[in-house]
């Protein structure tokens, strides 16, 4: 749920910021300096500048919490479902990609520090591309773990999940390339004004496809079993059951002065 919430938060933030920009001054998006390179209205044009950027940073900061909470819970779920004390390749890939998504959520905040204030759009695009790729890899990791993982993890992947992961992957692979071509060729040929090397309709189409994939990720991701989390305060005069703790946790409990439950 946290990963789906992370994707949904990005979409909601874009909608909110575009609403603010259009209400405040539509020229902030229409006359966006990066539009010279691409020709069309990129989804991010609506949140690059104030006052929408204030809302964007505020809301995207919450994504850091969502992304890292998902990473921690995904690691916990993998450990709880581990029956052979061995992490296979599918599980390892899934774990790595969840942490990459956590890193991506932090990188995402750099988008308002590089590009809009200093015009370094190549670096801005590089950050965006990396974050875009990491977010997709997290979706792919979920698919791989359920498609190629252990027997008890199989059976929940259907054709729609496979088609979605293929389409989403193609969009994420092609979109940054199109943007880099526009920016590099524009600069190399010394173009001025709104004069994109590639047809703006092409990039606009892929932007819409990316937004569609992001919006559909909740419905099209492979479902995973929920984790039931309970909380309990263990007072200092309580005894603890070693079976409820890992060896490292048992050692910590003993160091804190806790006593084990007497056997028999």
From TrEMBL:
Keywords: Membrane, Transmembrane, Transmembrane helix. The chain crosses the membrane at residues 49-73, 93-113, 125-144, 165-188. It comes from the Eukaryota. This is Uncharacterized protein.
């Amino acid at each position: 749920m946290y990963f789906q919430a992370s994707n949904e938060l990005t979409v909601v933030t874009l909608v909110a910021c575009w609403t603010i920009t259009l209400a405040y001054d539509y020229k902030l998006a229409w006359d966006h300096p990066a539009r010279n390179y691409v020709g069309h209205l990129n989804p991010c044009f609506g949140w690059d500048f104030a006052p929408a950027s204030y809302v964007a940073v505020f809301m995207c900061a919450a994504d850091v919490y969502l992304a890292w909470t998902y990473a921690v819970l995904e690691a916990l779920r993998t450990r709880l479902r581990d029956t052979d004390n061995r992490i296979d390749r599918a599980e390892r890939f899934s774990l790595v990609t969840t942490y990459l998504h956590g890193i991506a959520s932090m990188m995402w905040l750099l988008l308002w520090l590089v590009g809009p204030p200093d015009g370094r759009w190549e670096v801005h695009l590089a950050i965006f591309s990396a974050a875009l790729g990491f977010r997709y890899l997290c979706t792919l990791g979920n698919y791989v773990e359920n498609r190629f993982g252990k027997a008890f993890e199989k059976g929940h992947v259907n054709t729609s999940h496979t088609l979605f992961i293929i389409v989403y992957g193609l969009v994420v692979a092609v979109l940054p390339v199109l943007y880099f071509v526009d920016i590099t060729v524009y600069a190399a040929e010394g173009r001025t004004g709104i004069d994109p090397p590639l047809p703006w309709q092409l990039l606009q189409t892929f932007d819409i496809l990316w937004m569609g994939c992001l919006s559909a990720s909740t419905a099209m991701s492979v479902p995973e079993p929920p984790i039931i989390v309970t909380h309990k305060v263990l007072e200092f005069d309580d005894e603890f059951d070693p079976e409820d703790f890992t060896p490292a946790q048992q050692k910590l409990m003993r160091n804190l002065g806790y006593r084990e439950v007497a056997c028999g």
